[in-house]
């Protein structure tokens, strides 16, 4: 059986890792969708699709399942989003998500959806991690070691801090 799990992974953190490890116990193969693939260089979406491909690929390489990492750009039309996803990915039998819109769109399209309880959601949230990076607080303990390496390689903390100086709405800075 093949599963599908999509997230923005800005950045990939230990909540995502926990979910992937649980999914790996239920499927033979796993397709990981990098959502909002066209977005980068904003405080909400600081990392490029390629950078997130590196984070996710390295974070799951210890798992005993074959994984495929596929970037997926957003569409303006929710009603055809599931078809868009299916057009970009290996065929899958079940979609995993805790995002209510994603769950609804897959269910309406007749795809089985499974969720999971949130894991340490007080700290394991992308928004919390990005805030910590911007304000110089510890964030490294909340992500896989391999994700720290990728963020260091691309000088990601410096990037998000610089963007945050001019970007207060999640929009790209216009004057930089
Ligand atoms: N701590 C967690 N435990 C379990 N699932 C999680 C956790 N954090 C996120 N998820 C789930 O992982 C998927 C992808 O999440 P996403 O990439 O949006 O992360 P996020 O932490 O919610 O980020 P942000 O705060 O940037 O929106 C969603 O289905 C989300 O509900
Ligand atoms: N119409 C669309 O493009 C559409 C609809 C539903 C989800 N998505 C994307 O799927 C991903 C879902 O991931 P999260 O659970 O991390 O929000 C996001 O990147 C989101 O933008 C896109």
UniProtKB/TrEMBL annotation:
Gene3D superfamilies given in the database record: HUPs
Major location (coarse): cytoplasm
Localization recorded for this chain is: Cytoplasm
Reaction equations catalysed: beta-nicotinamide D-ribonucleotide + ATP + H(+) = diphosphate + NAD(+)
Query: Per its UniProt record, what InterPro entries does this chain match?
Result: Cyt_trans-like (IPR004821), NMN_Atrans_arc (IPR006418), Rossmann-like_a/b/a_fold (IPR014729)
EC number(s) per entry: 2.7.7.1
> What GO annotations for molecular function exist for this entry?
ATP binding; nicotinamide-nucleotide adenylyltransferase activity
Under the heading NCBIfam families, the entry gives: arch_NMN_Atrans (TIGR01527), cyt_tran_rel (TIGR00125), PRK01153.1 (NF002243)
> By what name is this protein known?
Nicotinamide-nucleotide adenylyltransferase
Q: Where does this protein come from, organism-wise?
A: Halorubrum rutilum
